[in-house]
Design a protein that fits this description.
Blueprint (H helix, E strand, L loop, with lengths): L5 E5 L15 H17 L2 E8 L1 H14 L4 H18 L4 E7 L2 H12 L3 E5 L1 E3 L4 E3 L2 H9 L4 E4 L9 E5 L4 H17 L2 E8 L17 H16 L9 E6 L3 H11 L3 E5 L14 H5 L6 E5 L12
Length: 309
């Protein structure tokens, strides 16, 4: 069953200052490739969007007028048109948009206006050091974007092989699990599921995670519930389910490193009816440590705090 029908890829064309490099950085290249492949598998609409900073753009337009150089908007459109052509070669119909303003804000406004059901952006990349981390655009999208957000890490052209879902046993965790199953089926991935039992059974008077005699029964109950939710999902390999005590952040990071996980899917926790308020946001806390791509989903009832215009 298709997972996404209207995909928006944020493309960073800038190389700093007034010019475009014409070459995407590795996370940007991965975001474009991921968007094309997902659109192809889901028969989805695809849009590549780039954003021009108003201050830099004004300065560049003055420079263009004085020197008769190519208009900055035309240059950006020409570069995005190359991506549209690339998508076409894969049988994907795509469009390009060049917008002025703050990237994360305009991305969310585009989601609201166009009804996008997935946003893909690249991580921030620090060329010579080969370090990747999640910048302010990704964090703002995780906090405020109403649809799922996929933040990509460079994959060196290799296909995905595994996906890990963090399941809190709540509604948003179930949404993340269902999405992970769909992605695993489409991409033929090994599925991992992790859950942290934060409310331990009776027998822990300290509240510091001292194991109760029947903690194994509690773990088994969680495992059985996850298996029941997976139901008859047709996976090429049996899922790996890991139950830990307490908050699962450390165990999740260890599992990612130990098994070379390519993608983590998790929900961001929100309060229904309160605009843009996130509480206990594990996804955001992990950003600075997670060394793989992240796909985050919002809970039902999340109200975007951004106006479409």
């Amino acid at each position: 069953m298709p997972q996404f029908k209207n995909i928006l890829v944020g493309v960073d064309l800038s190389s700093g200052g007034q010019s475009f490099s014409g070459v995407l950085n590795p996370p940007g290249e991965e975001a474009v490739e991921r968007g094309v492949q997902l659109a192809k598998r889901n028969n989805a609409r695809l849009c590549f969007a780039s954003f021009l900073d108003s201050g830099d753009t004004t300065e560049r337009m003055i420079h263009d007028a004085r020197t008769n150089d190519t208009n900055i908007f035309d240059e950006a459109h020409a570069l995005l048109s190359q991506l549209v052509q690339r998508a076409s070669q894969h049988g994907v119909s795509a469009e390009a948009k060049v917008l002025m303003g703050i990237s994360w804000l305009r991305l969310i406004q585009e989601v609201l206006k166009s009804g996008c059901d997935l946003v893909i952006v690249g991580t921030r990349y620090e060329g010579l050091t080969d370090r990747v981390h999640y910048g302010s655009t990704a964090i703002k999208l995780l906090r405020k974007c109403p649809c799922p957000v996929w933040v990509t890490k460079p994959a060196s052209g290799l296909p995905l092989s595994s996906v890990l879902v963090a399941h809190d046993l709540g509604p948003v965790g179930r949404k993340a699990l269902d999405l992970a199953v769909g992605v695993a089926q489409q991409e033929d991935l090994q599925l991992y599921v992790i859950h942290g039992v934060e409310k331990l059974p009776p027998g822990d008077p300290t509240g510091y995670g001292v194991l109760a005699p029947d903690h194994e029964k509690a773990h088994q109950a969680v495992r059985d519930r996850i298996l029941a939710e997976l139901g008859s999902a047709e996976l090429s390999r049996p899922p790996h389910i890991k139950i830990v005590n307490g908050k699962p952040e450390s165990a999740l990071l260890h599992l990612v490193a130990q098994n070379s996980i390519d993608l983590v899917i998790m929900g961001t926790v929100g309060r229904t009816g309160i605009r843009g308020l996130l509480t206990g946001n594990t996804a955001e806390r992990l950003l600075r440590q997670l060394q793989c791509s992240l796909l985050a989903v919002k809970p039902d009832g999340f109200e975007c705090p951004i106006d479409p215009e």
